[in-house]
């Protein structure tokens, strides 16, 4: 009898422990060195999905970058570029109605066409031409027209890059686009400064980015090879003959936005205006970029939410947040605080939340992290001094999207950046927010414009 009572007590108390340990489940112990990127690449291609056209994605400054840049950006500089990009996107998204902040006043932009090139952090390697030569391209969901630097081009007009310049004369499939085509006429003067005015037979293009960098050249078609045997014929891109900007060795850019010039829209007859990517974790190697949506049977791991677009520009992809939780606890944020919508962008680093949501998140996160010293003058407003800690206990952060689906951010990679909460305030509640790329790490993000939805799948790379 005494024994069974003891047993009952043991059972009951372990039940109590499990049931009331619930709040602990909202936290994860993280080794602080997992916040640092490692220096050696050990990429494998196991993440590549069979049956879809996919290419590896690596961080431009990470261990698997195809070329290491000679000038490493400081954290403060990366943040400044990310802010400039976010400001650009918001100003373009709202037709110049959003004012930029003082320190970025020189990056104010309505006339430009792309975000800050230098803030783009993820690159893919593809093949261009016949025979295909490899090209390292920045991946950009916030712009549409793709381009590479083309030969001939002297050092004043093209910046140094890792690969030899793409030489159209060595490709049997290259053609310039004539002026009297719909593709060229779409590059209207206010958007890409279509250069058919030089009396030429060739269609000119020009893109200026928010950071002052630019590219100009001949709008062309070429065979694009995504993977062995997976090609896009007559892919329209800019053969760049005059570039300004940083000297960072990438060969060009691939635009994944929603307007007609983008790779995604050009390949829509085959891939249905759908693509996905997984941005790799700091400590891992390659993620992937895939065209097309997974087969319906393979979408069980995804949380979906409706996709929306801005009325004035087809480029950006939007979703609507309805809630945020920290450590498993839903924050008290009225849904109206999210009514401006969130642009989801591969190139913005830090997520910008409207004021009410940001304040609630910041307060709850700081409370959950109160064991650790806040840095008074961090690069962002919630940065910690983890000196002396080999591990820290970090609260889970989850987004709830319109439709009710909830997505947990990856605690090791998706919440903190350089020991700072990777969020900032984007402005008043009526305005837009942006979901940046730190939050997206290790998730497969599926942009399915054909089906009008965005999906998230955890632990995809
Ligand atoms: C902006 O540009 C002006 C004039 O070109 C310059 O004086 C000022 O220092 C710049 N501000 C920043 C923050 O770069
Ligand atoms: C030109 O632009 C229109 C309107 O956006 C679009 O429907 C059409 O597909 C575009 N054509 C080409 C060849 O880009
Ligand atoms: C961080 O904490 C360590 C150990 O407590 C201290 O020595 C150091 O000065 C702190 N660093 C900053 C930037 O506050
Ligand atoms: C966290 O760090 C402490 C002290 O360095 C160590 O004793 C403990 O085992 C670590 N916990 C985990 C889960 O790694």
TrEMBL record:
Pfam families: TAXi_C (PF14541), TAXi_N (PF14543). The active site is at 140, 345. Residues 122-457 form the Peptidase A1 domain. Belongs to the peptidase A1 family. PROSITE patterns: PEPTIDASE_A1. It comes from Setaria italica. InterPro entries: Aspartic_peptidase_A1, PEPTIDASE_A1, Peptidase_aspartic_dom_sf, TAXi_C, TAXi_N. The keyword Protease applies. Residues 1-21 form the signal peptide. Transmembrane segments: none annotated. One of its GO terms (molecular function) is aspartic-type endopeptidase activity. This is Peptidase A1 domain-containing protein. It comes from the Eukaryota. GO terms for biological process: proteolysis. Keywords: Aspartyl protease, Disulfide bond, Hydrolase, Protease, Signal.
């Amino acid at each position: 009898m005494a024994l069974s009572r003891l047993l009952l007590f043991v059972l009951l108390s372990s039940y109590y422990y499990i049931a009331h340990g619930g709040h602990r489940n909202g936290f994860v112990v993280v080794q602080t060195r997992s916040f640092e990127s490692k220096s050696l690449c050990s990429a494998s291609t196991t993440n590549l999905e069979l049956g879809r056209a996919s290419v590896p994605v690596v961080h431009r400054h990470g261990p698997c970058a195809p070329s290491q840049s000679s000038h490493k950006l400081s954290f403060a500089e990366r943040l400044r570029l990310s802010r400039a990009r976010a400001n650009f996107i918001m100003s373009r998204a709202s037709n110049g109605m959003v004012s930029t902040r003082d320190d970025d006043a020189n990056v104010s932009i309505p006339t430009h066409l792309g975000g800050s090139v230098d803030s783009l952090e993820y690159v893919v390697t593809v093949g261009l031409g016949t025979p295909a030569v490899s090209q390292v391209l920045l991946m950009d969901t916030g712009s549409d027209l793709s381009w590479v630097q083309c030969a001939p081009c002297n050092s004043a007009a093209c910046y140094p890059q890792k690969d030899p310049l793409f030489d159209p004369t060595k490709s049997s499939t290259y053609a310039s686009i004539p002026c009297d085509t719909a593709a060229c006429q779409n590059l209207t003067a206010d958007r890409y400064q279509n250069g058919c005015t030089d009396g030429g037979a060739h269609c000119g293009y020009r893109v200026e980015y928010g950071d002052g960098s630019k590219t100009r050249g001949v709008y062309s078609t070429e065979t694009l090879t995504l993977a062995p045997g997976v090609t896009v014929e007559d892919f329209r891109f800019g053969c760049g003959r005059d570039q300004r900007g940083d000297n960072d060795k990438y060969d060009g850019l691939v635009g994944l936005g929603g307007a007609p010039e983008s790779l995604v829209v050009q390949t829509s007859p085959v891939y249905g205006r759908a693509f996905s990517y997984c941005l790799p974790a700091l400590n891992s190697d390659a993620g992937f970029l895939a065209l097309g949506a997974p087969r319906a049977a393979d979408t069980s791991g995804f949380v979906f939410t409706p996709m929306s677009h801005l009325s004035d520009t087809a480029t950006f992809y939007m979703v609507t947040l309805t809630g945020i939780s920290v450590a498993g606890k839903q924050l008290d944020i009225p849904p109206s605080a999210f009514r401006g919508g969130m642009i989801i962008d591969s190139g913005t680093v830090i997520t910008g939340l409207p004021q009410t949501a940001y304040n609630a998140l910041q307060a709850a996160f700081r409370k959950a992290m109160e064991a650790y010293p806040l840095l008074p003058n961090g690069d962002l407003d919630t940065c910690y001094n983890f000196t002396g800690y080999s591990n820290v206990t970090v609260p889970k952060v989850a987004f709830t999207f319109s439709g009710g689906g909830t997505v947990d951010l990856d605690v090791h990679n998706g919440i903190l950046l350089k020991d700072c909460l990777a969020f900032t305030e984007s402005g008043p509640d009526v305005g837009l927010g942006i979901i940046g790329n730190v939050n997206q790490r290790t998730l497969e993000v599926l942009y399915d414009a054909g089906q009008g939805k965005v999906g998230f799948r955890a632990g995809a790379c």
